[in-house]
Design a protein that fits this description.
Helix content is 75%, strand content 0%. It is mainly alpha-helical.
């Protein structure tokens, strides 16, 4: 549709202040050109002059001026006295020869049947406006206003022009004026609802309910009622409305897009994807549908296809559209799941650049990268969030970052695509940062076990041979904390097993190296504690057996 297409308000019953709803005209004036075209093509035999005119207007709105001219000419041939087709042809004359065009339109306006015909007078004013002949537009609109003092068509045209100028408040005011002039004429309600659906959805619903009170069968109501409910987050209601009125073969792309979006945000991703695919068959370059299709691929874990869809979306002509942060984060998520982390971070950086409030975005990206198997990168984004919080980050955020760092250490060691020396050094770097992070947790909430538990695990990883006993003080601090709590053997069974296993092994190594009896006593004590929790623990049994049998073996040697 042409960017500056102006809806022409028509549908007058000549010589009367009453209005007859012409469904095809209403579809045309609300921008539903597919439905309008289908309607008027079905009426060509019945009313060739009027149908030809509107088919010409539709073609002109779509930029097909040759087809528009041909339609007007057919309309003139069918009924030379039906003035609107001659108005349509005068549009071309006005552009080629302004003086001649003005004379042609002036002559039409002075014809006996045109002087009081609001349809014709408004059509002439509209053509002057879109052609930039401002003085004649104002004169034509003044003539129309005098001819129909109580006609809603003049404020309707003013509203359409204000809408083009993106003065939505002014446009809505003009549509309200049109309603006041004729409360039974439904079109201005719909035009007002088109605006309110996006800026005040609840008011749009009120307007549309008024329409249903006047005519419960009026088909234009459903689409904008569904959109209004969608905009207030009532997706189920929007979907139920679409289910009653939507027809995949006859409904326009706009209605299909609204329906698909409602399905998507109701997390009915597979249904949304199927409907979007049908829409893209009709309009392959539709920006919103391609966006939703990319989103749906991510949500349905269709990552390979999602990559192709994302690349197609970002290759589309941007036109008047704008990318939003979710576009970039979705592309980044798809890239990360396709094991392309460098490209993913490029997209995340773009999302951050255009996001005013970046804090939650840092966290979201961090969580996504961890989920995709890149916990080290995830920790980097979490650290950005924590630094941006300037000391106000929640303890659970430190915990999340710490677990990412801990996981990153084991991930990099298992990565066969990197040098082993680099992997070992990087793992140590991650573990040291994790130890610092969990240290913050233990100082913030000293009665919470998680900080001590992960500090112990991190230090155990930094000392894999248990040669230094780096984890020992942390496991001992954890043990002391657990034993101070109620029913520790029941609540912390797994943690106690982990502590006792580490300490029994640590003292076993000490005894094995130095032969001190106090170390042997500790091994046996901790092994017995393991067996109290898990009587079938084979390692604990072996340690006890080996150390208690040692004196007898010594006697036999003597």
């Amino acid at each position: 549709m042409k960017k500056h297409f102006i809806s022409l308000c028509v549908g007058v019953v000549f010589g009367s202040t009453a209005f007859a709803q012409n469904l095809g005209v209403d579809y045309f004036l609300t921008g539903q050109l597919d439905k309008a075209q289908e309607f008027f093509e079905s009426k060509l035999d019945e009313n060739p002059a009027e149908s030809s005119y509107y088919l010409g207007e539709i073609a002109y709105a779509l930029g097909d001026t040759a087809q528009a001219r041909a339609c007007y000419e057919k309309g003139v041939a069918a009924n030379p006295e039906y003035a609107l087709n001659r108005v349509g042809l005068a549009r071309f004359l006005l552009k080629a020869d302004q003086k001649a065009g003005i004379k042609a339109l002036t002559d039409i306006s002075k014809e006996k049947d045109s002087k009081k015909n609001m349809e014709v007078l408004i059509a002439i004013a509209k053509i002057y406006y879109e052609s930039g002949v401002v003085a004649m537009y104002e004169k034509a609109l003044s003539n129309a206003e005098k001819a129909g003092k109580n006609s809603p068509l003049v404020p309707m045209l003013r509203g359409d022009i204000l809408k083009i100028k993106e003065d939505m408040g002014g446009a809505a005011g003009e549509y309200e004026q049109a309603i006041n002039l004729n409360e039974k004429y439904l079109l201005p309600y719909i035009k007002a609802a088109q605006i309110y659906a996006d800026i005040n959805p609840n008011f749009a619903i009120e307007k549309l309910n008024t329409v249903l009170e006047i005519d419960s069968t009026y088909p234009l109501t459903n689409r904008y009622m569904a959109r209004a409910y969608y905009n207030i987050g009532h997706y189920a209601t929007a979907i139920s409305i679409h289910e009653k009125s939507f027809n995949v073969n006859t409904s326009g792309i706009g209605e299909l897009t609204d329906y698909a979006a409602a399905l998507f945000f109701s997390q009915r991703y597979d249904e949304a994807a199927k409907l979007i695919d049908k829409g893209l068959q009709k309009d392959p370059l539709n920006f919103v549908l391609n966006r939703l299709r990319m989103y749906s691929a991510l949500e349905t874990q269709d990552y390979a296809n999602g990559l192709a869809l994302a690349e197609k979306f970002f290759a589309l002509p941007l036109g008047s559209n704008k990318y939003i942060p979710r576009d970039y984060t979705t592309y980044g998520d798809i890239l990360s799941f396709n094991k392309l982390p460098d490209r993913a971070t490029e997209q995340y950086a773009k999302a951050i650049d255009i996001t005013p409030e970046k804090l939650e975005l840092y966290k979201k990206i961090g969580e996504q990268l961890n989920k995709a198997g890149y916990p080290g990168l995830g920790a980097e984004y979490y650290n950005m969030f924590i630094e941006a919080m300037d000391g106000e980050a929640d303890t659970k955020d430190y915990y999340t970052m710490g677990t990412y760092l801990y996981r990153a250490a084991s991930t990099v060691v298992r990565d066969t695509t990197v040098d082993s020396t680099y992997a070992a050094n990087k793992a140590i770097e991650y573990l040291v940062k994790a130890d610092t992070t969990f240290g913050i947790i233990t100082s913030r909430i000293p009665d919470n076990t998680l900080g001590f538990l992960y500090r112990a695990r991190v230090n155990a990883s930094l000392d894999p041979e248990t040669a230094k006993g780096s984890a020992k003080p942390h496991y001992e601090a954890l043990l002391k904390l657990i034993l101070s709590k109620e029913n520790p053997e029941k609540t912390y069974r797994k943690e106690l097993l982990e502590i006792y296993q580490y300490l029994s092994y640590y003292y076993y190594l000490q005894f094995d190296n130095q032969g001190k009896n106090e170390d042997k006593v500790q091994v046996i004590a901790y092994s017995n504690k393991i067996l109290e929790i898990n009587p079938d623990n084979a390692i604990a049994k072996q340690l006890i057996e080996a150390l208690t049998a040692a004196p007898e073996n010594e006697k036999k040697k003597k």
